[in-house]
Amino acid sequence: MKRLGGLLFALAFLVSPGALAGQAPKAVIELFTSQGCSSCPPADARLTALSKQPDVVALTLHVDYWDYLGWKDTLATPAFTARQRAYAEARGDRGVYTPQMVVNGLVACVGSNDGQIESSIDRATSRHARLPVPLAVEREGARVSVSIPDGARGAGELWLLRVDKSVTVTIERGENKGREATYTNVVREMKPIGRWNGGAARFEADLGGPGEDFVVLLHEQAAEGLGVIIGAAKGPGL
Known about the structure:
Layout: E1 2-5, E2 8-10, E3 27-33, H1 41-51, E4 56-62, H2 78-91, E5 96-98, E6 100-105, E7 107-110, H3 114-124, E8 136-140, E9 143-148, E10 156-170, E11 180-196, E12 201-206, E13 213-220, E14 229-234
């Protein structure tokens, strides 16, 4: 496990025609990983296995703070490093390392430790079996629409994540030199698409390309750091 310094990632999704129908998942799991981290391949494989569970939304986010070790991560962006740090700030533990999984935006654990992962999922879902704010998503080409029904309570910010289901990279230098690594549900970009203040609402945004898949996350409003996830939905390819 690599450390650099210091969320209940909640979600629920209902899907409209043009998206994916199914039961709302119990957990969103984000893996913060790096191509330059020798401890990360087992966690990358664990994330792939978790992505196959129908009640889980599993995401891979590549961070850039190990690029100095000899290999610049081809999938990393500073925004994902900032996101990991914002989660740590919200938790108050300043724990930032790879491989790290964050479950439902609140509970963090070592992403290669099966026992910690299961315990973190249990802790993150102890209050709600499913996420409290249902989201319905529709897609037409590159246009994504998100609807929240009347009666939903809370407030927060809605985010649209552009996701590649599978990406294979040949790592030529650094700690994983010579490895051909395949990553699952790789987040390529994320952007806020609107504020929600409770009750019925509808949001629309451009995904950026017709071939990309997506995830929508609703972060609860927070005084500082990132708020917990209170709603989520995923596109039909995920």
